[in-house]
Structure formats: C-alpha cells, structure tokens
Amino acid sequence: MSLYYEAADVLANSEKTGGSLKSRIYKNKDRKNSPAQLFALISEASKWSPVLKDVIERCGLLAEEKKLTPTLALLLTHDLLLTKGVAAKANHVLKLAILRHKARLSAEFTKARIRRRYATLEALKEAVDSGQLDGGDEPLKKAHGHPRWVRVNTLQTSVAEQLSTTFAGYSKASNIGEIQGAPASVKIYLEDPHIPNLLALPPKIDLSKSSAYVNGDIIFQDKASCFPAYMLDVGPLDGDAIDGCAAPGNKTTHLAAILSERNAGSRQQKVFAYEKDKIRAITLKNMVKRASADSMVTVKAGADFLRANGSAEEFANVGAILLDPSCSGSGIVGRDEAINMHLPALPAGVSTPATGKKEKKRKRGQGVEKTEADHNSTLLNLDFDDSTPEETPIEDQLSERLIALSTFQLSILTHAMRFPKARKITYSTCSIHFEENEGVVFQALASAAAKEQGWRILRREQQVKGLRDWTKRGIWQPGKLDAEVNMTEEMREDICDACIRCEKGTEEGTMGFFVAAFVRDIETGRHDTTPNNDVVRELEEEWSGFSDDEPIMVEDGGEAKKATVAQPAVSDTSKRPKKKRKKRRTQ
Ligand SMILES: C[S@@+](CC[C@H](N)C(=O)[O-])C[C@H]1O[C@@H](n2cnc3c(N)ncnc32)[C@H](O)[C@@H]1O
Q1: Biased-composition ranges for Basic residues (predicted)?
Q2: Looking at this predicted complex, what is its ipTM?
Q3: Which of 80, 468, 527, 580 has the smallest number of Cβ neighbours within 10 A?
Q4: Which sequence positions are flagged as catalytic?
Q5: Which helix H or strand E contains 465, and what residues bound it?
C-alpha cells in the first residue's frame, strides 16, 4: 500500500486498536512502510494542518479530485509543498491527482503565509514547529502545557555553565505557569524550586539536536522522575547504591550524579544498575556512558534483581536501594496534550471516496470516511506520545493487570528490604493507581521482611526539603485492600503523608507519579538476604512472558480480586503456598 494510503489507514484506526498513535504505528508489523516514515509524515502533516486545511479548501481540491479524502489531501499537500515531493511513482494515481493542482496549491500556500503575516517561509516554519499555530491561527494557549524538563548532568557540567552556554540569552521566568503557556520560540527557563539542577523550559522546545543534549550535559527527565534519587538522599556514609530496575537509566545517572556531588567528585561510591531486559540494558549502558557515569555505575545487563543475593561480597557496602519497577504507566504524559489534525472540509454534495486497495470495496461510511463522517468533524485528535516511555500504558484488563503488577512490585520491594546493609529504599512508580502505590507501601510495611528487618516509612518531616515541601501527598482508598491495615487512623494518615504523589495535567507540570521511602536503623536488621530460590522460581513461573510492552493476560475474565494485606503472623516464606498469580502472596 502506498505511504499515503497506509498513513490514512493508521489515522482511521478502523480496527479500533487502543494505545497512542505512536504505539499503534510501531506495534503493527504488517505495514509496508517503515514506522518512522509513517510517524514522521503524520506528525509533520498534523503540525502544518491548520495552514494546509485552509490552502486545500481555498484551492477547491476536494471538489475536483473525487479520489481524495480530506486526510489524503492533507498528507499529499504536505509532501508536495513542504518536502522534496510526493513519495510515489510518477504515474501513481494519488501523485497525478495532487500534481494537477501544484500551481494553485503553491499560490494559496503563499497567500496563507502572507495572511498570517509571516514574511518568509522560514518564519512560518518556526511558528509551526513551536506549536504557535496549534489552535488555528491562535498562539498556543494551553492551560497546563507539559514543560520540557531538563536535568543538568552535574557529572559533566553545572547549571551556571549551561545557563551561560546552551541557554545563553534565555531569561528567567517568574513562575511555572509562564513556562507552561509559552511557545517554543520564547526563550525562558525556570530553575525548579524543589529539585536541584533541574530546569523547566517551554513545552514544545526542541533541544534534541543541541550539543548539550547530544554530549550528555543535559538529560530530558520529567520533574517527578527526579524525585526518587533525590529522595534517597545518598551521602558518603550510605556506601554503595543499587538501582534495581534501571533502564533507560534516568534515575541511575541522577543517583550517580548526586553521589559524586556529595563525595566532592571522588566517585568512590558505586552504583549497581540491574536491568532484566537485555535490549533495554543496551539503552541503559549507552545512557550511563553518555552521562559520564560509567566509572561509577556497574550495569547488570539482563540480570533479575529478584535473584540478586544481598549477602554477596560485592554488595557488602550497599546502603541504599532505588526501586522503580515496571508499572501500568498510567501517569505518563504522552505529550498527550494531543496534537490536533485539522482536516479540510468536504464541499457540499461531495462524498468521501474509498482510500486505498483495501478500501476499494468499502461503501461510503467505512474506514477513513467513516471516522471522519461519524464524528462529523474536521478535527482529528491524535494522542502522539513522542516521549521515551518508561512504560506502555495499557487500559485493557486494568484490574487484573494491577493485581499482577502490584504482586511483582511488592516482591521486589520486600526483596530489597532483606539486603543486610541497606538503610534506605525508595519505591516509585509512574502510576496513578492506589494498588501500585500506597497499596504496595502498606503491604510492604506489614510484611515479614519489614518487620524482621526493622523497616519503617521515611516520615515527611525527615525528608529532604524539596520533597517535604511538596504538597500532594499519598491517599487512602478504603476497601482496596482485603484485610484492613492493622493500625490506627493516625498512623495511616502519617504513612499517607509520607508518600508523595504527582498528578499529570496540573499547574505543577509533572507526569503522574508516586514515591515513598523506607528507612531503618541498621542495628535492628537481621542479616538474612539469600534469595529464596523457591520464591524466585515461583515468581518466574508466574511472570514468564511478561514484558513492559505486553498486557498480562489473566486466564478468565473474572472480577479482579482485592489485594490482601500481609500479616506478620502468617508471613513465614517457607510456609507460603504455591499458587498462581491471581492471589496475592504474603511476603
Ligand atoms: C519503570 S522502568 C525503569 C525506569 C528507570 N528507573 C528510569 O528512570 O530510567 C522499569 C524497568 O525495570 C526493568 N525490570 C522489571 N523487572 C525487573 C527485575 N526483576 N529485575 C531487573 N529489572 C527489572 C524493566 O525491564 C524496565 O526496564
């Protein structure tokens, strides 16, 4: 199928596949054209669509070319006017159709630019790239746009140095709202008040080609994603650290930077970075290298943290563990202030034609035309997701997936609690669900591991200043845990107050996120951390085939069960019954 038919087919999403546009493009292996090519065409055409819609309508293209749908007209006009040309054979029916109107389309394009008061094509391109034309001719006015968060990599540079080089000529914004509403062309930044070495920049700014990004001086990392390493607050007395779930490596490199800073750059303390997935481990290694953290970080590629033996000699000095395990990804901002594709309206009396070989036999009202006709609208809302996702949000079978995920999350957390020298653990997710967040924290605190090893929650007043001051705290959702937690309401409130939440789409400009920290006085801990191979085997049995990209299938479609709060009295792992994943296990 030609590039244009295939792109139109993706946009029509006639099979009603879930997920963001990007995941729909990249997951379908049956397409003839490369995902990168399809994604580039659709995203570029949608950026230009407020202008091109106008050009196509004024030119009367759809009235004359009965073979073109509004989507095809938009895609073809984009390539005709803004690229090297239409990517099709000279005699292709679509190419012939659009080329017939080249002169008029070009003339209307020039008029459209002049009407918008852009002196040159370059000036118009800049406005389009910065999203200024997103809402028609109106400048970008998003209530809570998602800032481009940039962490300055202190292993290589400093905020002062970056402000005088990469961001030379930028001025200080007075608040985050100013950043959130700014188009990319406005050169402003804000130093984050909660996290050191973090800058907020306008949402659509593209720094991916800047030398600072390419050479690792700056790292794109959402503000919330910086909370765990900062919360861990590792200092010279904390020894080495482990990142138990590390790829792509944002938190690993942040942890290394903090350790190095606190150690006056001596880099004596090490970070062990576990990554179970071999492919993701390659990304992790690259990121660690690019951030100049390779002298401090040992990547455990393809290694399962659940199998790590805390009593091993190499971990003898591990005092801090950061855990950011796989989760539902429900907090991720897919830069999902979705991009709108403005489609040209069909002239009165013109019906939408079929859109390609597969569509030839379709009747009016199917495929692309159905999508457009059904919604009776000339606006397609595209959830683009151009970030590097840590997880793939999957809405299907949510409650089953939450049970499976939280079982795994609890296992990994209680495993970390058995490392003999560990005194600090952070647990985080980019999920908004209680089950994966406070639910796991309450169960971990009630677990045998926590009780035997003396772990408790790091109370709000003991947290580093920026996070102590953060106002969004944990929540309690009654009825979500099978057994009520054996504690007073006051204790429960304290634990919730110790937990930190971030919401997406708010005036804070973060993704949806959760973090909590656990601490203990080392003297109270019992040193028993040999991995229980029965438990590991059992988990592997349950988790074989699990990957971040795959939804977890549950055998029946039955109602999800609530999580059970582990009670210490029944927590002896040797008595743990072997069972399948649907039941939560006592840790
Ligand atoms: C949420 S992502 C981590 C994101 C990372 N902390 C960052 O900020 O860049 C979770 C990662 O943990 C890995 N993972 C899941 N289970 C694991 C296990 N048992 N041991 C090691 N890595 C695991 C996944 O493959 C995935 O790459």
Answers
A1: 576-587
A2: 0.99
A3: 580
A4: 430
A5: helix 465-468
